[in-house]
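Notes to self after the Tuesday call (sharing in case useful).
The group wants a holo model before anyone commits to mutagenesis around the pocket. I volunteered. Ligand is D-xylonic acid. Logging inputs and output together so the record is complete.
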Amino acid sequence: MKKLFGLMCAVLLITVLAACGNGESDSSNGDSSESASEGSGDAKVIKAGIGLNDDHPQYKGLLKFKEIVEKETDGAIKVETYHSGQLGDDRSMTEALQLGTQEVTIPSTAPLANFVPEFSVFDIPFLFPNEEVADKVLDGEVGQELLGKLEEQNLVGLAYWENGFRDLTNSERAVASVEDFEGLKIRTMENDLHLDAFKALGANPTPMAFTELFTAMQQGTVDGQENPYATIYLQKFYEVQKHVSNTHHIYSPFVFLMSKSFYDGLSEDQQKIVKDAAVEAGKYERKLNREANEKYLEQLQEEGMEYTEITDEARQEMKDAVAPVIEEYKSKIGEETVDKVYKAIEEAK
Ligand code: TK8
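Result:
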């Protein structure tokens, strides 16, 4: 009887110790069964979520941010990374930052314009001639000024990353010029300028969160979408899209956002660390993204997509078709902001 009692106590003790765990938890990708904050003692935890998957340069940039922050703060700040819309879509994750229930997300400027309308300036079709000019303008005075406007929305813009030049895909027909857009049901980001620009091209646009896009294309709810080649390839859009054209109609920046309530709770040193980490990881992400966009058009064709080259004449036709929309949005965005950006572009060339 005594032996049995002793055995039961031993089993009970082992069970209790196992339940307490060793206090360690993998906060690396947020997939840990327990939240890292339980396992990390008094470390501050950044929950960082994006919509793209873990193959995309944006996620590799986020891992670089995590590496720098955890090293530079000696573990005082831990970063949990979530991809593929695990925490929501761009708009809902940005709202979560405003509420303080999430600490980092990295949306495109297009959905961000729903929070600070001036960001639509970067969604003016054919605005940036190339990535180098985009970098100079975004990292320069006017780009940084716009980041400052986020604070009134309880958001802190720490850096610009790169989504890239957007290209059209669809399942219906080859698109070589403006008339080929006629009637195509194109998904756009949730941004009025994008919507009106595609209407001006003759398409039938539908604003939609990125997290719903693949299913919408699979079910034929939309005929097509527009994104950089890296996204088209890495999100496997070639499985549900037949045609791709190098429209290059918009250069889309990402904005590395942090919740202002979280940022304000950091020490000055920690604020500098997260800011510098976002900038450094952004430069790394831009490099990876450009390498990716270079090689993925060829791989899209290897996966069976039919590529159509947009000639200079056809692109000029597209510019002419959207010119009235750009004129209309100058006042909506703010003439001063638009003029500053155009001036900065001329200086950066
Ligand atoms: C991913 C999106 C995506 C964007 C879009 O969350 O919505 O098409 O280009 O990169 O931000």
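Two things stood out.
The first strand starts at residue 44 and ends at 49.
Confidence is low (pLDDT under 50) at residues 17-28, 30-39.
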